[in-house]
Structure formats: structure tokens, C-alpha cells
């Protein structure tokens, strides 16, 4: 038996059983009750493991358009209730940090208060979010690495993209967006030159050159190509970004995975036994960059890389680390939901449903590790609920905050 994942014995077919939708819906509803009961035990209030991540889950249910008005209102009330569990004091220093800091907290508070119609309160949090821009503008604002997704500029910009969808308006002026994207590119060029990297843009986080979604190159490149106002204005930057994407693809292994860091290339490659097939490290996170690149550059080879990621995740993605998004079964299941949206092939919907099914079978429950934060959005069941809900309406499915459409 492999160390890190359960062997996948499910049939890979197209015989969808739609009666499962009722099951997922009921599982999601009972999980939300259990999460609500335990939400106060969260040790922080950020998106990753804290209360704001749980409130986001309730907000997502409330706005999914798949519940009646009574249920939607009840979920929205729960979202506010969860926000009120922890006292929140704005911390300007952390105001640009999205997944693990105040930018994410302020964005979700703004969205929830907007949804309940309290525009005055919503505006306060939106203004707090905007303050993050000034904090992360200086190129060296975070010495350990200020460009990545969790606490860096890439995360902040994903926050902007999300808020623009929520409020259906511009949140940050184009000029500032272009400036921030240019800073990311400049930061990558400087680091690459200094370290003589083969990539025209390279970044490090606490001295490691990560490639995956958590702290690595892929989410940084993904956010840059998500702003047409930037890539159309800066053709040289666009070229460097595309070169990086193509070089990253050249590192895809025969089985479809990617090294976690630049240190793991060539002779230092992880053994198959040790390779990580997580959203945070490995193909399941780099997949979103490839999908976005396919939509932006319209090159078939990018889609083919996505399909390879999908086959890898099908074979090695039933992780033993629990049901979460970051390094768990639900996070990996999201790969199939996006493949379904990209290809409209029912086979991928079946794969997503099998991953959902696996979360609740005895083998998984008995032999999986319990996450440190079992109710949270990224490590725990709040993320699982988002995944189960997206199975019910797969045409709109999207990994939290990383929608490529
Ligand atoms: Zn992880």
C-alpha cells in the first residue's frame, strides 16, 4: 500500500448516478451543522484555518442559488454569527496578506455585509482591504518573499479578482494593478538574475524556490495572466511569463506531476514513494495555472498538460491527509470539476463524484489523518462542504478564490 494515498479502485467510467446529488446535499448540510457547533474552537480568524474561512463557506452556500430563500438567509445569518465569534482588530501590517492575513479577512467581511445589505459596514472592510495595496507596493516589503499566494502580492491580487466578481465593479484602479503586477515581474527578474536562474522570473519564500500553489511560482504566474490590462500593456513581461510557463511545463514528469521546489529537479528528484500530489505542492495546484494559460493563450498543449495532471490525480490523489482543500481529497477532487468545465466530458464529473464518495467510506474515515484544524476551509471540512456543493452545480464549480473563468 502506498504511503501517502489510498489505491484508487473506483471504475473510471461515464455511468453517472445522479441520485448521489441528494446524498452530497445531505452530507453537506449535516457537515455545516457540525462545523457551526465547533467553529468557536478555531484558534485564529484567517481564511486558512480560522473563522473567516468558515464564514466564507456559509457565504458561498448562501449565494450559490441552489437553496431557497429561507435556507440562503439562514446560511447568511450563520456567516455573520461565525464572524462574531472572534473579535477582529484591523492590523494594517497584515492588510495585504490574503490567505493567512487581514486582506482575506477584510475581503470576506466586506462581501458578507454587502450580501446582507449593510453597505456602510461593508464599505469599512472594503476600505481596509484597499489599505493593503500601499503596504505591499514596495518591492521588498516582505523580506522572506513578498510575491507568493498566502501572504504576498499574488494573494492580494487574487483577492482583488474575487472582490471584483462579488461587487461587479472595479476595486483597485487599473493603474495600481499594473504597477503591482510590474513590481512582481521586476522582483522575479531581480531574483532570477541574482541566482542565475534558468527561469526569466523566479521567486523564493524563506529561501526555497517553490513551484506549487501554496508559496510558489505557479500562482504568481497565474495571477499575472489574469489581468489583461497588465499583459496587454507590458509585452516583454507577457513574454517572460509565457517563457516561465513553458519552462515549468517542461518539468512535468512522465506521470504528470511537478517537483515541489527547484531543488528537486534532476538527480534530486523525489522518489515516486515520496512525491506530493497536493494542491499546495504538486500538479493539483499547478493545474490552475495551466488551465488559465490554456484560456488566455488558447494553446492546445496547455490543455493536454491539464489532462495529464487529471490522470495523475485520479491515480494518486486519494490522499491520507484528510478531506481538505490544501492537501486533501476535496482539494484534489476540484481538479476534476475544472476538467469537466474545460472539456464537458462526463468522465471527469464521475471522477469528482468518486472522490466525494471516498471521503465518506469506512477505509478513508478509519485510515486518514485527522487534520489539525478539522473545521477549517483549507485543512478541514469547510473546504469539503464547498466541494460537495460544487458537485451539485458543477457548471459553476470553482476552487475557492482561484476561479479561472
Ligand atoms: Zn497543504
TrEMBL record:
GO aspect biological process, one term: carbohydrate metabolic process
**What is a single molecular function from GO for this protein?**
metal ion binding
Alphabetic keyword roster: Metal-binding, Zinc
Recorded hits in InterPro entries, A to Z, give: 6hp_glycosidase-like_sf, LANC-like, LanC-like_prot_euk
Per the UniProt entry, the signal peptide is: none
**GO CC annotation, single:** plasma membrane
**Which residues are Zn(2+)-binding?**
280, 326-327
Q: Does the keyword Transmembrane helix apply?
A: no
Please tell me whether the keyword Zinc is annotated for this protein.
yes
What family does the Swiss-Prot or TrEMBL record give for this protein?
Answer: Belongs to the LanC-like protein family.
Give the protein name, as stated in the record.
LanC-like protein 3 homolog
